[in-house]
Amino acid sequence: MNHGQNKMDFELKHIGFLSIFLVILLWSVINPKDMFTWFLEVLPALIGLAVILITYNRFRLTNLVYVLILGHAIILVIGGHYTYAEMPFFNWLRDTFQLDRNYYDRLGHFVQGFVPAIICREILLYKSPIKSGKLLSFLVISICLAISASYELIEWGVAVTTGSAADAFLGTQGDVWDTQWDMFLALCGAVISLLTLQRFHDSVLKQRHQ
To answer: What is the pTM of this model?
Structure first.
């Protein structure tokens, strides 16, 4: 009975995570700054949701990973509502501390490495013979860099295809090294994620298998 109750609680948590995302998603689509930009920014979160729902019964991730995914998705939909260059709180930070730009997009690309690092780590530990260690960390970081580079190529493709309509999506804010900064921050996010969450992640996985 306790096992069944624990399983029920586990699933209810996921319903709660999904409800939080859907509420914020609904808010974000109401009068966004630019609907085309909203679609481009939110699309990765919607694709991620579709993948989770399709694979949910066959491949259940840990609550740690679901919480990280939720946080990343919220960052994406907020960026979609305001655009990354005009997120109000980061505009306030820019003006208050006399920064040279709105840094919300930098946060987004840092998280683009931080969150996928744990997702990739969990999938590799479940689905491959690779054990926790240096090789696993190297592969995780490499995958995160590949994801970041692929996203930059997508941004480039959208910009070439749509022209000035993609300016808000790119969010370069006049920085000629914006692409390099984005990939570098994703790399930093992946490394910091492994340094700070690796042991905790191992303990979560261990508890799940008990």
So the answer is: 0.90
Are the C-beta atoms of 46 and 96 separated by less than 8 Å?
Answer: no
Q: Are 113 and 81 in contact (CB under 8 A)?
A: no
Whether the CB-CB separation of 90 and 168 falls below 8 Å is answered with no
pLDDT 10s digits, 54-83 = 999 888 999 999 999 999 999 999 999 999
34: its two tokens: 């630019």
Contact 186, 152 (CB under 8 A): no
The stretches of the chain forming alpha helices (DSSP H) are 2-29, 35-55, 63-82, 88-96, 104-127, 134-162, 167-170, 178-209
Tens-place pLDDT, residues 175-204: 667 889 999 999 999 999 999 999 999 999
Exposure class string for 116-143: b at 16+ Cβ within 10 A, else e: bbbbbbbebbeeeeeeeeeebbeebbeb
- What does the angle CA 42 – CA 47 – CA 50 come to, to the nearest 5 degrees? 130
> What pLDDT sits at residue 159?
80
Distance between CA atoms of 106 and 85, rounded to whole angstroms?
10
Distance CA(102)–CA(92), nearest Å, equals 9
